[in-house]
Amino acid sequence: MFPFTLEKAGSAEAAIAAAATGARYIAGGTTLIDLMREEVERPERLIDINGLPLGGIRVEGDDLLIGALARMADVAADNNVQRLQPLIAESLIEGASPQLRNMASMGGNMLQRVRCPYFRMLDVGCNKRTPGSGCAAIEGINAGHAILGTSDYCVATHPSDVAVALVALDATMRVHGPQGERSFPVEDLFRIPGDTPHLEHTLLPGELIVELRVPGGPYARNARYLKVRDRASYEFALVSAAAALAIENGVIREARLAVGGVGTRPWRLRACEAALAGKKPDRQAFEEAAELATEGVRPLHHNAFKVVLLPRTIVRALELAGEVA
Amino acid sequence: MNMNIIGKPLTRVDGRTKVAGKARYAADFNQPDQLYAVLVSATVGLGRVREIETAEVEEMPGVVSLITYRNAPKLTYLPHKGVIDPAVGERLHVLQDDTVRFYGQPVAIVVADSLDHAEHAAAALRIRYDAQRPMVDHADQQVARIVPEAGGADRSRGDADAAVAEAAVKVDEYYDMARENHNPMEPHATIAAWSGDRLTLWSKSQFLMNEQAEIAAVFGLPTENVEVICPFIGGAFGTSLRTWPHVTLSALAARHVQRPVKLVLTRKQMFFTTGHRPRSLQRVALGATPDGKLTGVVHEGTGETSRYEQFTEALTAVTDYLYSCPNVRTQYRLAQLDTGTPNHMRGPGEASGIFALESAMDELSYKLGIDPIELRRRNEPQIDEAEGKPFSSRSLMRCYELGAERFGWARRSPEPHSMRDGRLLIGMGAATATYPAFHAPSSARVRLLADGTAEIEAAASDMGPGTYTSMTQVAAEYLGLQLEQVRFRLGTTDYPPTPSHGGSWTMASVGSAIRAACLEAQSQAAQRAIADQNSPVFGVSREGVEWTEGRLRRRGDTLPGLSYRDILASAGNPIEADGFARRDPEIAEKYSMHSFGAVFAEVAIDPDVGTIRVRRVVGAYGIGRVVNPLLAKSQCTGGMIGGMGMALMERTVLDARDGRPVNAHMADYLMPVNLDMPELEALFVDEVDPHVNPLGVKGLGEIALVGTAPAIANAVFHATGKRVRKLPIQIENMLTA
After folding, report:
1. Which of B51, B477, B702, B732 is an active site residue?
2. Cβ contact (<8 Å) for B613 and A232?
3. Contact flag A309-B606 (C-beta cutoff 8 Å)
4. H helical segments located in B83-158
5. Which domains, from first to last, does chain A contain?
6. Distance separating alpha carbons of residues B644 and B660, to the nearest angstrom
7. SS3 for chain A, per residue?
8. Which pLDDT tens digit goes with each residue over B58-78?
9. How far apart are CA B13 and CA B488, in angstroms?
10. What is the domain extent for residue B498?
11. Closest alpha carbon within chain A to B656
């Protein structure tokens, strides 16, 4: 590990001021410390923001507001979260391990780094870690990598589960920065790699995530997160799907759908959503909609199975959401 | 000796120590003035070290020494081969030249005043290589496949190939099982401290005596100058049987800096130089009559080894004796790759080989339309047909009967793809498990103390099966003492020598030695009592006295008799007796000795997304006498979980470009976690084997894993009608029709 200094932030303003001059925020540390120990991350200054009052979970009308420092485990166990947005709770429980969920913050979860093994290997090329050094994964072992949103520079999968649910639900995030406060869709936080895979998100220097807002909707209670993987816990998704359906008089009025494990960012499937609207919630409709999900996929040597698994996972998630089977 | 402590389901005598965090593992033995070493591992898979930028690293904070092949002392490396070392080849010599034989080979050590400083400096070290592309893909046609020079690779009776060719019904398939790493909880760790030319190693080891001998040979020391201490092991599964380069390197570093040095491998480094279960490629061809009698069996298997040693395991051995068949041919080859030398991993060889054989038997049962258990019954041999000897005991069909009843095999519908639970596909599979009942010469010491308690010592290990507890039971039983009156100590080379803690022979070997030592101690105590003129048995002949429940009486007498305390109180000094046990060569010549078992598994498979969940595993085993049923069940449970990992998850993935394991991390190398756990049940048939050893125990550690993977693979077929001949079976394999 490279030497670093650690300061506790006395206020959000102080933290932001420090971050604007190069310090890095640290909350749960479940990504950052891990990567620092492997010397992939080498911050010189850390600002511990755990003392800031950003941990609450509250309700405003139909909207659910989750503080950036709320821990994954606490959010998953929260009554309001389970009542208003069961998809958020389910996607959190499916993520990481209990130990990690106890530590990891919601804001940190949004900014977690990728799980590509080559990203963590300092002796191989990785454009995300070292711009211009190449991508070892494209010709390497890439069974876990993305099939959507990839480029010739990076094919790493976005690792978060709850981000998939947030993107499906049109959640927004509020950030504070040197220039003040702004809010934007969570979906807009994540960049696709293009030729600049080292730029992963759209936060401006010094900006601090303070809150997530999940708007209510008629589909929120009929929502399920299905994560497909080879062991039951502590594994990243091969493919996951967050599906929410508003069904009225036996017809889908509105659908929300996003997938994980396949994209370089949490992948919203608006074409599938549109195809579902007005249909009867049955397997045929789900299969027809799911077909659209694989448009534009770019499978690699070892991950072509995801092209098969993706629509199947979507169909099952929709069935679960619609309680069809 | 009629207290029956053997056979009781007692909890662990060291349980409280472990739960309270008071058990000390190798890395816990921090020494005064100790420094910290971190290994630098090669980042190419084959080639030479061209340039090392040492100067900058040597100046980094806290760095005491940077050792590479350029400044490392030349080590003696006297010839030494323990029973767990490959018989052919020469072990890796570390930091002796610029050669890189495989990815991750140690190429430097950084020694610093703290672990942080050592890690940081190790990461900063820049090394340039002249690299070549290594050959690490076993399946590549260009890989040289050799006949193992140690011999025993081929066996044959009758004409198996012709019999298979002419058979009415046949199965002829290829099977592929992935490379695995042991991944115990506790990492490899050694603390080395020199005092003159004497070396003490606190080192994680399953074979203290060999570690002592190996390090003495490497450094050219008299064996007795090296002491190895390891009272506790946090899991090992075979990875700590051999003495790997990190032990040499910690001792080398400690001598170089003239201070004690601690070296703990990282999880990633445990995928490099501490062995692995080799990937195996196998062909099994079975020929049978329409009524299910085997007429020919061919089993050809290839394992992996390094370029510098020939690691062999019993990949095809079970096929020689498992079933009755006049025509059997087995063949074993080695693929030489640019990797570190593999080593034994729980159920070595047998576990891999039986996956192929038992998958093929299952395939044959469907082709014949005969129940898989019935097929085994029709081919149950009367003797070991390869050796032409009777089995010392064999309870395979009783295991199938007991297991089938418990599992509810009768509820299985014979057709594949025919059982459902809601939308899930249900499959039930069974497979045979077997493992040799090994035995190795061992010794032990008993000390009877004046307070009437006993101390037992042996240079054994306890990697988790409960050796502390079960050996205490054996000693208490034969001495006629209460469990609390016996203290069993292990874990140092100062104690009487024992064989390796592996191969399921610890109870057979060490237990028999403890028994012998206990009987010898009793004999000495009796003699002392007989010679004591104040004793009620004074002057009685040795045959005229007997021990019952720890008391000495005249034969047939009903008086209370003498306790050890009574006898020792008068004479004063304790009684110390050494015991030695080995298998009687005449009996070994006469019988074929193996454990047998039947494993049943039920799986539920999601037909849409291919998720495979194991719901239940039931194993029934014939393993002779069970010393402690509670520990035995625990050992079986662990073995079944290992078998689940083998069937569905475990696989070390190598990048063919440089041979690096890309998933050398606990998040990426999958093993079952709590949420994967099915109902696991182990049953033991009553089996008396008077031949294997005086204790009548056949060993359990390996057979507990062997057989689980094929039972699960067979269940997957039964659920889906899809035969996967490659382990691990994963979701990916379930997606194609």
Report:
1. B702
2. yes
3. no
4. 115-124
5. 5-51 (3.30.43.10), 223-321 (3.30.390.50)
6. 25
7. CCCCEEEECCCHHHHHHHHHCCCEEECCCCCHHHHHHCCCCCCCEEEECCCCCCCCEEEECCEEEEECCCEHHHHHHCHHHHHHCHHHHHHHHCCCCHHHHHHCEHHHHHCCCCCCHHHHCCCCCECCCCCCCCECCCCCCCCCCCCECCCCCCCCCCCCCHHHHHHHCCCEEEEEECCEEEEEEHHHHECCCCCCCCCCECCCCCCEEEEEEECCCCCCCCEEEEEECCCCCCCCCCEEEEEEEEEECCEEEEEEEEEECCECCCEECHHHHHHHCCCCCCHHHHHHHHHHHHCCCCCCCCCCHHHHHHHHHHHHHHHHHCCCC
8. 999 999 999 999 999 999 999
9. 10
10. 15-22+440-582
11. A140
Write the CATH number for B71: 3.90.1170.50
Residue B682 belongs to some domain of the structure: yes
| Residue B256 region by backbone torsions, left for phi larger than 0, else alpha for psi between -120 and 50, else beta | alpha
**Distance from A186 to chain B by nearest Cα, in Å?**
27
Q: Which of B643, B662, B729, B665 is nearest to B183 (CA)?
A: B665
Determine whether the interchain pair A1/B120 forms a contact, defined as Cβ–Cβ distance below 8 Å.
yes
CB-nearest to A316 from B116, B608, B668 is B608
**Cβ contacts of B153 within 8 Å, gap of 6 or more:** B147, B312, B331, B332, B333
Chain A residues whose CB is inside 8 A of the B657 CB are: 139-140
Could you tell me the pTM of the whole model? 0.98
Collapse the DSSP code of B211 into the 3-class scheme (helix H, G, I; strand E, B; otherwise coil) and give the result. helix
pLDDT in tens, B382-434: 999 999 999 999 999 999 999 999 999 999 999 999 999 999 999 999 999 99
Using a CB-CB distance cutoff of 8 angstroms, which residues of chain A are in contact with residue B731? 228-230, 238, 305, 309
With b for 16 or more beta-carbon neighbours within 10 A and e for fewer, the A218-251 pattern comes to ebbbbbbbbbbbbbbbbbbbbbbbbbbbbbeeee
Closest chain B C-alpha to A167 CA, distance in angstroms: 23
Helix (H, G, I), strand (E, B) or coil at B117: helix
Spatial distance between the Cα atoms of B727 and B359, rounded to a whole number of angstroms: 11
What's the CA gap between B561 and B554, in Å, rounded?
8
DSSP string over B593-629 = -EEEEEEEEEEEE-TTT--EEEEEEEEEEE-B--S-H
Question: CA B346 to CA B639: how far, in whole Å?
Answer: 8
Chain A nearest-CA distance from B422, in A, is 9
User: How far is the CA of B280 from the CAs of A230, B89, B646, in angstroms?
Assistant: 22, 21, 12
Give the confidence band of B4 by pLDDT, cuts at 50, 70, 90: confident
- For chain B, the maximum distance between any two Cα atoms, rounded to a whole number of angstroms, is 87
- Locate the DSSP E strands across B150-293: 154-157, 169-177, 189-195, 198-203, 226-229, 261-264, 280-288
Q: How many domains does chain B have?
A: 3
Quick one: B613 and B565 in the same domain?
Answer: no
Same domain, B255 and B304: no
Across chain A, which has 325 residues, the per-10-residue mean pLDDT values are 95 96 96 95 98 97 97 98 97 97 98 96 97 98 98 98 98 97 98 98 97 97 97 97 97 98 98 98 97 98 98 98 78
Model ipTM? 0.97
C-alpha A255/C-alpha B315 separation (Å) is 54
Nearest CB to A230; choose among B120, B730, B736: B730
Measured between CA atoms, the residue of chain B closest to residue A117 is B662
Check whether residue B578 and residue B639 sit in a common domain.
Answer: no
In a domain, B162, yes or no: no
For residue B507, name the pLDDT band (cuts at 50, 70, 90).
very high
Structure token digits, residue B702 = 């390996």
B702 has catalytic annotation: yes
Mean pLDDT of B159-163: 98
